[in-house]
Amino acid sequence: MRYATSGTEETQTDTLQGVVVQPTQASEVSIALLWAQENAIDVAVKGGGHSTAGTSSSDGGLVIDLSRMNGVTVDTTQKTITAQGGATWKEVDEAGAAQGLAAVGGTVNHTGVGGLTLGGGYGWLSGEYGLTIDNLLSATVVLADGRIVTASKSQNEDLFWGLRGAGYNFGVVVDFTYQAYDQKEPVFSGLLGYTPDKLEEVMGALNESLAQPDSRLGAMCFFALAPDGSGPMIMVIGFFNGSREEGESKFAGFTALQPIVNTLDMIPYSLVNTLQNPQATYGDRKAFKGIFYQPPLDPLFARTIFNDFMVKIQSDPDLAASAIILEFTDMRKICEVPLSSTAFASRNIYQNGIVHLRWTDATKDLEHRAWAREAQAKWKAELDAAIKDGDESSVPQYINYAEPGDSVVSNIYGENIDRLRDVKIKYDPNNVFHKMHPISTSK
Ligand SMILES: Cc1cc2nc3c(=O)[nH]c(=O)nc-3n(C[C@H](O)[C@H](O)[C@H](O)COP(=O)(O)OP(=O)(O)OC[C@H]3O[C@@H](n4cnc5c(N)ncnc54)[C@H](O)[C@@H]3O)c2cc1C
Q: 3.30.43.10, 3.40.50.10490, 3.20.20.80, 1.20.120.910: which CATH number matches 19-66?
């Protein structure tokens, strides 16, 4: 049976699984895990299937595909949302919206709750409420030895700590319960599109949004080709969780730059997480290279990156769906949480981004991946130059954007690594869960 994840990376070629199981309950996950170990078969777990490094797939092994475990329930009294491990954020957003609630989930609603939560999770509500893991109340986990346990602040606390930021390492999470928040009102959000000559001014407006932070405000910037084929463009998704009047004022610096596209409007929160769906689809070949930068982002550096990227993606029509994505998130709430209170190591002021190449011709894999790595290295060099006391490798990288095999990935778990090793030895001593930045059990 052929069964592809959303793309491939240099760490893997296309994989052909030995067998895929689609459990409908935790006990079936437990049986599958035990069977695989008894027969010395490699195991992979698939949530939303968005890994571009093949970490939710196994060459010749067993894939536990959680897609049939995608139920979501809402507790309106406690204001919590429980999602099964194979749900996507679409199901969470829609179930929450029906009750006037929202959770901190991903900005592309077909991403899985599984992978995104276990690696931390940034979303449009992160400025106000922190990371997805900061709002995780409990999880049900099937361990390698087949036991089904609860992890929370009061049960298996060490496992709960490890799940929040290094969560791919310990078991199959069959449900997550999140704190949700009132979200009865729509938000002010939409797309702004600019011609390339506006790049420095757009960067100025984006930098200003972080210089004058508002926890309700966020933005993402995309260097990409216009969908109508008219050439390079700078796109911004703006987000403000407040009234139209205040939103217009918050984005006045952006609208004054005379965008050629402006869809800013009052829309339901759940719809904001669909805005990127037309571009962020499954399939094709992909390089997904996490980058990060220290704000304010130097407009001259951004210009160099933009120009180089456009030369690259205009050199081959097959690369037309590629983009460089830069996030502008108010990190204050995220950084309020002490580094040691969850396993998530990259709580810092640095902003995340992605160099994302996408193509279809497999003969171009090496060429395009090499280019993406070079682009990633330029961001690393820029950050190295900006950091006074050390180099970029001293800054833990965001695990969800740091696919295994990335050339600049050197530090994922930061100062939490020793404690994580103890948790790994306790819950997965034989390293059954080893696909995504496995924690070594030896020092
Ligand atoms: C289009 C796109 C948009 C994105 N947007 C955001 C964003 O807004 N915010 C953000 O923080 N990140 C974002 N990411 C990164 C995303 O969080 C990671 O790629 C994440 O790992 C995807 O999870 P998944 O369940 O869809 O993928 P999968 O490929 O299914 O899983 C990824 C990893 O998690 C493991 N896993 C998944 N579910 C479980 C489970 N229930 N139990 C145990 N292990 C599990 C898999 O084994 C695999 O190693 C985005 C990625 C893409 C491709």
A: 3.30.43.10
119 Cβ inside 6 Å of ligand 1? yes
Count of C-beta atoms within a 10 Å radius of residue 233: 20
Nearest CA to ligand 1 atom 39: 114
Secondary structure (3-state) at 203: helix
Q: Where do the structural domains in the chain lie, given as residue ranges?
A: 19-66, 68-183, 187-401
In this structure, are residues 113 and 105 in contact, taking their beta carbons and an 8 Å threshold? Answer: yes
Question: What percent of the chain stands above pLDDT 70?
Answer: 94
Percent of the chain at pLDDT above 90? 84
8-state DSSP, 132: S
> Given the DSSP bridges, would you call strands 62-65 and 43-46 parallel, antiparallel or unpaired?
parallel
Dihedral (CA of 375, 297, 234, 324) sign: positive
Q: Residue 183: CB within 6 Å of ligand 1?
A: no
Cβ of 112 closer than 6 Å to ligand 1, yes or no, is: yes
Judge if the beta carbon of residue 108 lies within 6 A of ligand 1. yes
Query: How far is the centre of ligand 1, averaged over its atoms, from the C-alpha of 316 (Å)?
Result: 29
Quick check: 26 pLDDT over 70?
yes
Protein residue closest via CA to atom 1 of ligand 1: 280
Q: Is 165 helix (H, G, I), strand (E, B) or coil?
A: helix
pLDDT band for 366, please (50, 70, 90 cuts).
Answer: very high
Peptide bond into 296 cis (omega under 30): yes
For the domain with range 68-183, which CATH number is right: 2.60.40.10, 3.30.465.10, 3.80.10.10, 3.30.450.40?
3.30.465.10
